[in-house]
Design goal:
about 30% helix; single chain; alpha+beta; 4 helices; 7 strands
């Protein structure tokens, strides 16, 4: 689902080199924000557990500007992983467009609930999820008992996926 006329959002394999570069950039930024590379509880996402991974490209320049994926938690629930937008494009709707595409894909795959986590050093991420219709929930999975984690969830159905796409 294309939600932003300035973007081309493509589904790619987890191993895609552009996606891998964007994930490395995200992790480097988080390492700097948290002051340590040890800021992610649990195992990192992988090709084996990601239902979908998307890369957004600027149509004008062809440059990759962001990415995001869905990690399956069970048959009906997925967690947003590696949602990242390169710094110079932040605030331009790239993250919202990637989220809308992820929600549409979740709906197509029969996923009815998506979860997300943002840490204490990610106030922008927490605001993004709250402004995108996610509700705070108790920490789940590897985030249980982690003081610097803030967890969110959102139900996905045809109306919610369409609403996000129009936001």
């Amino acid at each position: 689902m294309q939600t932003n006329p300035r973007l081309n959002i493509r589904q790619v394999a987890w191993s895609n080199p552009v996606g891998a570069d964007l994930r490395r950039a995200q992790q480097a930024e988080l390492d700097a924000r948290f002051g340590t590379p040890d800021h992610e509880p649990g195992s990192p996402p992988s090709d084996a557990d990601c239902a979908v991974f998307l890369v957004a490209y600027d149509k004008g320049s062809g440059q990759p500007v962001g990415c995001g994926g869905l990690r399956l938690l069970d048959d009906r629930t997925a967690e947003i992983k590696r949602l990242y937008v390169i710094p110079y494009t932040r605030g331009s709707g790239v993250a919202s467009s990637i989220l809308a595409a992820l929600e549409a894909e979740a709906f197509k795959q029969g996923i009815t609930r998506i979860k997300a986590e943002a840490g204490s050093a990610q106030p922008d991420g927490r605001n993004f999820y709250e402004n995108s219709g996610f509700e705070p929930v108790p920490n789940f999975g590897p985030y249980v008992g982690v003081d610097h984690s803030y967890c969110y969830a959102k139900s996905i159905h045809a109306r919610s996926a369409a609403h996000t796409a129009m936001a």
